[in-house]
Amino acid sequence: MNEYVTELILKNAQTTVNPELKKFRDDYREKGVPTILTESLNVLILMATIKKPLKILEFGTSVGCSGIALLTASEKATLYTVERYEKSFYEAKENFEKFGLSGRVKQFLGDALDVVDEVGDGFDFVFLDCNKSKYKDLYPKIKSILNEGGILFADNVLFRGYITGEVKTPHRHNTIKNNMRQFLKLISEDEDFITTVSSVGDGISISYKKIKE
Asked: Is residue 3 classed as helix, strand or coil in its secondary structure?
């Protein structure tokens, strides 16, 4: 992304992202814990603020940063969030409690593909930020449980420039690259959605599920 545009987004995020949440996110990044990039977080908060979902599904809880952001932007929402790592699951649980949000969170421990049938349906907003190689396999499931008029927001869809070919892909990441390209093809060609893909952060896609007449 153009450096000037990136600077503008980062400055805007200073007013968009709750200072307490930003410090929380920054503290984890300093410890080496991967959390959502500022530019992507800014857009995520924007979309949740516009949509005001009542029921949110998140794949990839991590330590709870994005979930806290979504709940803060959507005051009446309940968050259903899936995490496969036990340590992160319990750390996120503590963080939801610290922010006073535990009563609005339903956590699921397990691999996204194993748990997706347990979370229910009727979601207004889905945030996809788990194992990147599984986005394409989760997509049909997500489509079936996302309400018409709902939003699918996927993070890291350009994955360090490997997906577009701007950066040579290490052999160990070829599966992720190929699977992510299939995911992007699926969401871009699905006539039931309106989709945009952006280079914000590490790449995001935003898909709106059309309301059938």
From this structure: helix
Whether residue 87 contacts residue 103, with contact meaning beta carbons closer than 8 Å, is answered with no
Q: Quickly list H helices, the chain.
A: 3-16, 19-30, 38-51, 65-73, 86-98, 112-115, 135-145, 174-189
How many other C-beta atoms can be found within 10 angstroms of the C-beta atom of residue 172? 7
- Note the Cα 30 to chain centre separation in Å: 21
Whether the full predicted model's pTM is greater than 0.85, yes or no, is: yes
Cα–Cα distance between 173 and 147 in angstroms, integer? 33
Residue with tokens 């809880």: 61
Give the whole-angstrom CA distance, residue 20 versus residue 41.
Answer: 14
Using CA atoms in the order 117, 111, 57, 78, what is the torsion angle rounded to 10 degrees? 90
Q: Kindly give the confidence (pLDDT) of every residue in the chain, 213 residues in length, as a single tens digit, with 9 standing for 90 and above.
A: 556 555 655 555 555 667 888 888 889 988 888 888 888 898 999 999 999 999 999 999 999 999 999 999 999 999 999 999 999 999 999 999 999 999 999 999 999 999 999 999 999 999 999 988 899 999 999 999 999 999 999 998 887 555 655 656 665 666 777 888 899 999 999 999 999 998 888 889 999 999 987
